[in-house]
Amino acid sequence: MSAEDLNDKSFGVLSLYGYTVNNEVLGVGAYSVLHSAFSKTHETEVAIKVIPKIRGAKEFLTQFLPKELELMKELVHPNIVTFMQVIETNVKIYIVMELVKGLSLLQAVQAKKQLNEKTSEKIFRQLCNGIEYIHEKGIAHRDLKCENILLDARGYVKIIDFGYAKSNLNSTDELIRSTTFCGSYAYACPEILQGRPYIPFLADVWSLGVILYIMVFGSLPFEDTNLQRLLKLVVIPLLMPTSIKISGRCQKTIRKILTPEEIRPSVSAVKELSWLRESSNDLKTSTLKETDA
């Protein structure tokens, strides 16, 4: 949809809830337009996603959107965008969220061609923290990609877009499999591309590996323009570019993640790999020195 589909009259209801909407459009999605606004109640700027019901697909409005809203209400974590309020009228749905002033991870990578290893490690650690949090709550994101990761002005990670998320995955002792294939080909694990039932938690981990590769190398690990070729590439050992130098520990982390489902680590196990563990120790040492000073 286009920003022209909305006009000042559509914001009248928001003023009743103490929101003053800015005219600037922050983003346009398939079924929504994102605006910034000032909230008198919260005394801060917020983001408001406006969804005209007439524009939304039936499946989106009746299945994916209600599920996303229900999940967002229960997710409270520094690395997940904060849900504040939903306002619904006969013709529109308004979702009020934390306003993240910054870039998407995709924009950040494109601006610099690739990110240095230290910056990538800081971002990746926060990503793992956020995903570990939702996995512990029995939720898998299922659409992790650079576009769905925001970086605020201080470099903090905010994960967004839980429209394809699956919940209640901790209802049994066994890892539950899914047959709903969603997300983007470039970030999809082999079992999804092959059309096999997959473990949503481990699908998220594969996507994290793709994201880490993109950060440090500035390109996709597997070319996604041809599905048949992509299917072949994701099941053979990954080759690392030699033109960009990264540490052996970082390379090992990527290789450890982008593995077949049966040996792919959980996100908690990824956090224990030497690249992240040793970087964490360096950070603690640095903090202690600053405290001593």
Automatic annotation (TrEMBL):
Its cofactor is Mg(2+). The keyword Magnesium applies. Residues 20-276 form the Protein kinase domain. PROSITE patterns: PROTEIN_KINASE_ATP, PROTEIN_KINASE_DOM, PROTEIN_KINASE_ST. One of its GO terms (biological process) is cell differentiation. GO terms for molecular function: ATP binding; magnesium ion binding; protein serine/threonine kinase activity. Keywords: ATP-binding, Developmental protein, Differentiation, Kinase, Magnesium, Metal-binding, Nucleotide-binding, Phosphoprotein, Serine/threonine-protein kinase, Spermatogenesis, Transferase, Ubl conjugation. InterPro entries: Kinase-like_dom_sf (IPR011009), Prot_kinase_dom (IPR000719), Protein_kinase_ATP_BS (IPR017441), Ser/Thr_kinase_AS (IPR008271). The keyword Magnesium applies. ATP binds at K49. Belongs to the protein kinase superfamily. This is Protein kinase domain-containing protein.
